[in-house]
Amino acid sequence: MLAMAILVAGSEAAKAIDVESLFGHSVRIEGEYPGRALKIDGRELHRNAILLFDELAIVNGVPALIGSSGDGGNACDGSPFVVSFPPGGKPRFDGPIEACAYIQHEVFPDKIVFSTNNIPGQGREQWSWTVADGLKEMGIVPFVAEDKAGWQALRERSFQHPSDALKNAEIAGALQSLLGPDFETFQDIITGTGGGEFKSDDYVGATCTPHMCREVEALLFLSAKDRQAFAAWKLYEKKIVVRPHVDQWPEKAKQELWAWAEKWK
Question: Does the global pTM surpass 0.85?
Fold first, then answer.
């Protein structure tokens, strides 16, 4: 509850946050955007444009305040940090984690584990926080298609970004069979900038490689009726590649393909 009170107060950027009773320490976030400062017992521990507290956890009997720090730009999400309050000792500050990615966390009795999203072709970066060692890198966990819903995922409307299809074990397997050695090329593009939508029971998504839109792009069409994937992509200064052959695409998928390819005519 204290952590939540701090978070709510922190939304008022022009005011200082002052909690005198947090484990016997004064916790303050002072200043205005873009120069806010986290101070505990009068000591400045960290400064950035945006400072927020997310959760108060207990790890090995030690209170740990999980927060995020951001520079105010839209290129990167806020990065996690941890302020801990060991009994009989001074508060400790660990972080922020050096990563330009959305990072989530999970609290265990003996540690906090921070993780990026499970990204096709890249895997998941992880860090651990413990009372004894603070923040430590755990390395990269290889990507695994964790969604077991198969083609029922279309009925569930569970896809947002086209790369979500690669997280679905059955659909990813269908794409691998369809594309063969070109699968990794398609995967690199389809995990880029873009989006998708459901049209009736089908899903259509389009992406491009960041900073190379209109030069390197990909299209994905998932047919609910046929339970089949259709893919197209274009590399820089190359012709569009279509799989399977366009004659085998359903009429609705062909219309999406023609509309997507129009920009290169």
Answer: no
